[in-house]
Amino acid sequence: MFIGGDSSLAPFEMFQFQHIIMITLLFIGIIVIYVTKNKKVQRSVEIITALSLILFEISYQLWLLLTGNWEIHHALPLELSSISIILVIILLLTGKRELFEITFFIAIGGALQAVVTPVLNFGWPHFRYWHFFYTHIAVIWAVFYFLWHKAYRLKFWSVIKALIFLNLLLPFIWLINNWSGGNYWFIMEKPAGGSLLNYLGPEPWYILGMEAAAVVMFTALWLIFGRGKESVER
């Protein structure tokens, strides 16, 4: 039940207790990070958090292999939430301000949506359940930690940097999709069933709708959180 490949033994149910408790934990953590923003956090906490994310990601890849579920068209860490995990790991280890400017928008835009509306088959107490929510929640907590505890600043130029970063990655994601038969970032086709992408126009023009949605979302995040103090360089 904990590591098996059959989701029917521990199915995930959206907006039931096992989901609501994680959403609640996410927002409680954000509040705690804000309330304690003037308290010093040991450097070791940043390193341990980064190492825990690395361990979880390696364990996830091993689990996919051991259960026979590893397929190149879906298992590569190329989705936005996976990219945000990689960026947060590097941010925790290096503390680079320039990286924070990009990571904040991608992490909030990708991981927050993933926690609220998860694409997840395995529920409590399965390994995949813990992997999914730990990594996504930790990513969100990490960027708010850098925003409030370390007083890293978001500027409007940060929005532009994040958009440029994503658009530089886009052609590589498209090439990998063509090579692997995957649909990373949903740029090859819309996901099956109902999706917000259905409201962004027909194929392939919905990709421009995704671009516009990213501009609106990132700008809104800057308006809400971009009034911080000058960042402290390491």
Automatic annotation (TrEMBL):
Protein name: TIGR02206 family membrane protein
Keyword vocabulary terms for this entry: Membrane, Transmembrane, Transmembrane helix
Keyword Ribosomal protein recorded: no
One Pfam match: TMEM164
Top-level taxon in the UniProt lineage: Bacteria
InterPro entries: CHP02206_TP0381
Transmembrane segments: 15-35, 47-66, 72-95, 102-123, 129-147, 159-176, 205-225
